[in-house]
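Following up on my earlier message about pyridoxal-5'-phosphate. Here are the inputs again, as you asked, copied directly from the submission form:
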Amino acid sequence: MTATFIRNHRRLTEQALSIQSKVDTIAIVKNDAYNFGLFDTFTAFHKAGIRAFATTNLKEAKKLRSYDSDIMVLLLDPCTEFEEMREHEITLSLPSYSFYQQYKDELKGLSVQLVFRNDLNRLGFTDSSKMAAVLDDASIKVNGLWTHFAYADDFQTNRHEKEINNWLGVLNDLTSYLPRLSYIHAQNSASYITNGLMANHTHIRGGVILYGTRPYVGNLDLSLARQTVEVTANVIELTDIKAGESAGYSAAFTAKADTRLAVCDIGYGNGLILSRKDFPVSINGNHYPIRVMMMSHLLVEVDQSVSIGDTVNLYNDELRFDEFTERGIGSFSQQMAAFNKETFTQVDIT
Ligand SMILES: Cc1ncc(COP(=O)(O)O)c(C=O)c1O
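Thanks, got it. Here's what our run produced:
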């Protein structure tokens, strides 16, 4: 028996369509599309009408271009492989004014977008006058402007308001250039769900919501995002231990009372993040606590109703990535990126 990683391609398309039908979307597909798989994700999103894709590395950008000659492929990180980017018609994000100054000649003929650094302090121009200087350079093909918010998912501070105002100030300073730009984008899933598309923006730049996860739980209905991934394992053994006895390496679990443990064929080696251990699994519709997580096994405390061969659900419509995120386990991308898909039996719902 092997743990199973189930990808629901149909839902992925429907999920993307539920967003793209309302707002033009640049799909974030970095890290092998949040580990869903780049080609399959591209296929689902393209079916949903998405025609713009963004990633952080050239290798993935080139793959995207090989899938379709008409889409916009945006490279989010700086890159100096100018010939390759030109050949594969990749739009480069310009990370700073000094990058522009250094590579002015190489940038000729390449499509670029200008990034505003803002409060994330990761990449980007720090003031609009320098952005205007690049927009005024007729030899540089600027097709868009973007920024990335640091606090769109954070409701504990008022810093999001400040970063929105910084950005809207930049757009205001560059008003006269906006009509000629096809891509003006800043909003991730949380920002779009909270605010709708902001004025003067052409697209959102969505990640988690496209993959079937609410960016935050709040009062958002479950139907907003139907989960596209399920993970199951199997009960491969039942072990009874007496009160005071231990199980796992270095007595990872000591039973307070006589306890039945189900040994399940999944662990952190398959990519379960360690904090998943703090939340239950479901077997035959009942929830049971994980007591020990090992590389390829979980020990789950069960009752007499559980049998060898039963299916153990780790993620499904009821055990949702976004609910776990809300309860502190880690973001959707952290939970997804960790999965070692090679170790699973993979099932595709098409
Ligand atoms: C630059 C950029 N834009 C947009 C997103 C999408 O964010 P979310 O998944 O919260 O929609 C990401 C996610 O990592 C990102 O790095």
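One observation from looking it over: The longest strand covers residues 229-241. Hope that helps, and feel free to reply on this thread.
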